[in-house]
Every structure is written in structure tokens, then in C-alpha cells.
Amino acid sequence: MENVIIATVLSFVITYFSVPILIRVADLKHLYDEPDERKAHKHRIPALGGVGFFSGFLISIAVCIPTQSASPLQYFMAAYFIIFMVGLKDDLVGLSPLKKVIGQMAASFAIIYLGNLQIHNASGLFGIYDMSPHLSSLLTYFTVLVIINAFNLIDGVDGQAGSIGMLVSAILGAYFLHVGETVYAVMGFSLAAGLAGFLIYNISPAKIFMGDTGSLLIGAVNAILIIKFIEVGGNPASKMPVGSVPAVAFGILIVPLFDTLRVFSIRMMRGRSPFSADRNHIHHYLLALDLNHRQTTMTTVLANAGFIVMVFALQGMGTTSLLIFELGLATGLTYTLYLLKKKRAEKLVRVAAEAAAAATAEVAHVSSKAKILRVSTDGVLENK
């Protein structure tokens, strides 16, 4: 318990005091996230915030996680450094999607094979229980890569990725603290505390962004935590077993996972790269409904928290049934947002068309009056 408390305080303090320094460095070196037509911000914002909470997170876990001979921490830290370097290079000079995926695959290798962290049991999902080593590796790779990219893709409005990342890591950290998994409890609370320190500067109006350095790190840490949660929660002999654990895990990460899988599917169905940019994310729908950044972030965080409560309450449904229920509910809510956005867009077009028609009528009316006045004036002059 003492390790968790010290790690939490240390991570928060280091992040809180390092972020203003990073803002100053970004200003001096002109390291900004430039606005464009698909981004929500309108001004240049420093984008090195991820370096701040990466420092707080890394120092706190290095100091506070107890040394164990069989601990996978060294491999996890190697994965974090790989993700950090990939994100930092992308923030500073840009990086192609292929090179980012290669870096993420290298980090995944360190987590899965060197750290020996895999999903071995599907807990009855579509009738599958114990999986073959090849299927287990494939599913774990897919899970890690999707979660890493999910937090990167929802980082579109001030505070959203950080707030959801803080919520998820704190929930998982609390679970691991309860079941006695100190290594993972320290990681969860260290990340949550670092994000809390960062969000002080990132909540709208943001003074700094986390950049890919930060969003990829949030994804990597939560990927490790969620896979360990599936492993521990799915064990009936654990201190706190969880029913339908893969579906519960999906519900814990519902906003980033569902939004990412939905957007990737839409892009591929349209013949585009899944990594191509567009404005089809849930936060774009909320912004289109005239919500500001704070309201959008609050809405998505509350939705994610609601799903977490729901999946824990309904864990007895069975893995397949619960997952289908989650997907159906998430699809229905997202489609409702889409219809509201479409209706508002049509209303704006109609209002603009009416305004244009009114302006045209006004111009025609003024022109008509001017013509009558000119004819009248000409007639007076002729009479004279």
C-alpha cells in the first residue's frame, strides 16, 4: 500500500512541476501543434505534454515497484521507451503510419513474449475457452495494437484522452491493489496521478497537448493493465474473480475501443486507409452539436464511467451476451448522435439558404426601388 501511495504522489508532483517547463521550452523552440481544417483547436498549442507525465510515471514506477527476480517490469519499461521514442519523433518531425506500427509491434513483442503477458482464455466468448498458443498470441497482439492506437485516435479535444486514460488506469489500479498485484497497482495509480497533474494544464482551454508521445503511452500502459486484468479476473481462484471478463474489459475501455473499431471499419469500407484522417469520431459528432471541449470531454468520460458500472453489474450475463449487449448499446447511442448531428447540419444549411434568399430578396427590393426612383427622376428631368 505504501508503494502505491508514494508512487501516486511522486508521479503527480513530477508531472505538475515539469509541464510548465515544457510549455516554456516549446515556446522557445516553436514546437507547436498547428491548427488545420480537421483539428478542433484554432491556435498554436505546445505539444510536449506527454514528456511530462512520461517522466513522472517512469520515475515513480522505477522507485516504487518492489524488485522481484521474475518481474516483467524491465520488459514493460523497454516497451514504454520504444513507444515514447515513436511518439516523440512523430510529434517533432512526423512519422509515417507504417513506421509507427513497426515501433508499436516492437513494443508489443517486449510485452507479450519477453514480459510473458498474453490472453490465454476467452472465457466462453463465442464458445471459445482455452486458446492455442498461436491464437493467443494473435489475439494479444491485436488487443495491444488496437488499445495503443485507440487512445491516440480519441485525443481530439482538450482533456478527453487524458481524462478517460485516468479513469481507466485508476479503476484497474484499484482492482490490482485489492487482489494484491502490487506491480500493476503501482503502474495504474502512477499513470492516473501523472494524468491528473497533466490535466490541470490540458483541460479546456488547453495550455499544452500531450501529443502522440502521451497518447501512445496511455494506450501502452492500459493495454498491459487490461490484459493482466483479463488474466487475473478470469481466474476463478483469484481474490476477486470477474465473470465474463473479456466483455467486462471491453466495457472498461468502451469509448476508445468502440470509437476506434467503428472509425477503422468505416474508412476501410470506403476503400481508405484505416489511419487516414476524417471527422467521424464521437467527439466530432458532439462538437457538431455545438458542445464545447469541456462538455464533450465530460460527456464521453461519463459515458465510459456508466459503461464500467454497467458491465460489472451485468458480468453474470455471459461473455458473448454481454459483449453483444455492449456493442448494441454503443452502436445505438452513436447512431443517435449521428442522426442529431445530421439533423443539425441540415438545419444550418436550411437557415443559411433562407438567409441567402432573404438577402437576395432584399437586394432585389432595393434594386427595384432604385430603378423606380431613377425612372421618376428621369421623368422629372424630361418635363423640365
Automatic annotation (TrEMBL):
GO MF annotations, alphabetized: transferase activity
Membrane topology: Multi-pass membrane protein
Compartment list: Cell membrane
Highest taxon of source: Bacteria
Keywords: Cell membrane, Membrane, Transferase, Transmembrane, Transmembrane helix
Species per Swiss-Prot/TrEMBL record: Chitinophaga horti
Residues that span the membrane, as ranges: 6-26, 47-69, 75-93, 105-129, 135-154, 161-177, 183-201, 213-230, 242-264, 296-314, 320-340
Keyword Methyltransferase: no
Record's keyword annotation contains Ribonucleoprotein: no
A Pfam cross-reference name: Glycos_transf_4
Protein name: Undecaprenyl/decaprenyl-phosphate alpha-N-acetylglucosaminyl 1-phosphate transferase
InterPro entries: Glycosyl_transferase_4
Main location: membrane
